Amino acid sequence: MRERALAALLVANLVAMAQAPKVRQSPAASVSQELGLTKLEITYHRPAVKGRVIWGGLVPYGQVWRAGANEATTIAFTGPVKVAGHAVPAGTYALFAIPGKDRWTLILSKNAKQWGAFKYKQAEDDLRFEATLQAAPMQEWLDYTVDLKDQASAVVTLHWEKLAVSFPVTVEIPGLPALQKEWAK
Questions:
Q1: What is the pTM of this model?
Q2: Is residue 146 classed exposed, middle or buried when 0-12, 13-18 and 19+ CB atoms within 10 A define those classes?
Q3: C-alpha closest to that of 27 among 62, 66, 74, 71
Q4: What residue segments make up the domains of the chain, in order of their start?
Q5: Tens digits of residue pLDDT in 126-179
Q6: Rounded to an integer, what distance in angstroms lies between the CA atom of residue 142 and that of residue 83?
């Protein structure tokens, strides 16, 4: 009888431990910004450099990368936008990158719910565009920022290690010039 009670207690503890939340090595993060009447939101996980070679090492050149850690990084728009000058409908997209030494290809995939880039399919791309990298101060944890330029435009930047990759996002705001004159008063 006593052995059964101990066994039941051990099983209960193992089940509780398996269900307990775990601290991730690459914590979840998000950033959002309102552009006109549209909300832009990026959801991602933040890996750390930890002394590793990132570009051409941990993240190989010429291969599709999830642009973060764990689940695929997502970028969502509540209304239609232009990304790097290309029309993109409202929706949630996986944000992938193909890093290169001098230029990157960024990808918005219609298949937003996936783990990493393991099941990435080019046929599911909504948009591919080129981005130029820039040298940047050391950034231990991968970070995304959205730098608002005015009510209708922002620059999204991925910054990790000593590189930054940016792209513009714009929205249409009917009558914006008149609104800006009114706001200036």
A1: 0.84
A2: middle
A3: 71
A4: 31-184
A5: 999 999 899 999 999 999 999 999 999 999 999 999 999 999 999 998 866 666
A6: 21
